[in-house]
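Same chain as my last thread, 550 residues:
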Amino acid sequence: MTQPPGAPPSATGEFLHDFLLARVSRGPDSPAVVEPGPPGSATVTTYAGLGDRVARYAGELDALELELGSRVLLEAEATADSVALLLACSRAGLTFVPVSPETPRDRLLTLIGTARPALHLQPENGRREDLPAGVGTARFGPAGVTVERRPDPVRRRRRAPSVTDPAYIIFTSGTTGRPKGVVMSHRAVVAFYRGMLAHDIARPGDRIASTSPLQFDFSLLNIGLALGSGAAVVPVPQALVRWPRHFLRVLRDTGATQVNGVPSIWRQVLRHEPDRLAELDHLRGVLFCGEEFPLPELRQLQRLRPGMRVVNCYGATESMACSFEDVPDPLPDGTERLSIGVAHPGAEMVLVDESGRVVDRPGTPGEIHLRSPALFSGYWDDPEATRAALVPDPLCPQSGQLVLRTGDVAVQGEKGEFYFCGRTDSQVQINGNRVELGEVERRLLEFPGATAAAALPLPEPGGGSRLAAFVVVAAGEDRPRPDELRDFCALTLPAYMVPGEIRLLDTLPTTTNGKVDRAALAASAAAPAPAAPGPDPTPGTAAAPRRGER
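reply #2:
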């Protein structure tokens, strides 16, 4: 593959685009992306076609003469064009920042102010308008990249890209109320891909259905697993993932052999369409991540598709993922918790207790610290948070090596395998999405008259969890309706961070040390919600959640 002007040819294969496009020369006519079409049809883009599209896009981006490393905001769903465009950014020496087209405008402006992108890209049918004047704008499609407003001209200070340059930035929920940008270098993400491929999860000819939106790193994991294995990625539109019959129709029409996603994507399928799922005889594998798979649902999935390989993937956005463990088939009676295995080849997990000592006894909990070549470079423009996450190696701090302090608590089994137990902070998973409760609470406190707020996950009867919030309004203020608070949150928060249930309280319960008693709030949630004043007393639900973030 050619490099930007002045760059020496890449011989290491450590650039993201080089690694994922290696099959262009080995199997040019093999499917690379398979997109669902009208019922009964699918559109296939071959590796040769994908490579040609990447080359065209990269040439058009390079003509803009952006500084190497400039950020490009890619606001799109996962399609063959958007996959080609993110690889084109890599080839042009630019850092892509994937963003959902459903992102509220205020949040998008926050991301723009934080990442300071040189260019905003959206598909030809994209609806985003009125972006800040300092950002170039363009649209992309089968005909190429069409520039609407050229980026501000810059003097290039760099001549050659490096594999240590940022390949992408993924923005996740942050504890400070500001989105947290996880910066991954080319070398780190390719190191992860190599470790993942060592598990032989996919092979040439496979078709891997990706159910995660493009802005989540799980989507990039799926793209890497497919293209790195010589398989095809099948991007499933979010609107179809949410409807069991449409979802299964896509799997049938595209010939998907594997489905990757959070466990909650299967809940409605197992409940309403088990017979149709059982008929998908080409479906040979499932990889899940982002939350624990409820064991009754997992057992039902195995009964419907006996012999299917199920892989439990564990990890954080800061390392894309960390481990891959096959689930026993069938799941043994008496199983209470699934193993997450051990770290992928080239990486290692170590448990550390609250005093900083390494835990070496089975069954003793500790925080997972990850030693890996696939660690993120840091949080964008946040050195303090970076120092808190990348810490000296607890086994040999004198070496200067940094490891990832994950915030995840685990125990080890007798054979050295790990079992995830929970979090050390306020970060939770809602349908596979990573949510910082503090960010939700801060938004609620911005509502006029709100004096206190607490957010927490509540278990759903059939498995999984929903996000709930409890809000206190100042005395003398008109009590808002729950839907007003939800609409207020939705102005700046993505849909999966909007509480599906909101209750108004006179005060928040506290523990003996003065902290919010979340256990008491969870217990109170089991009781019927009191009627709210106004014409809409019944708590509603937030928009359907997007899935895939860990």
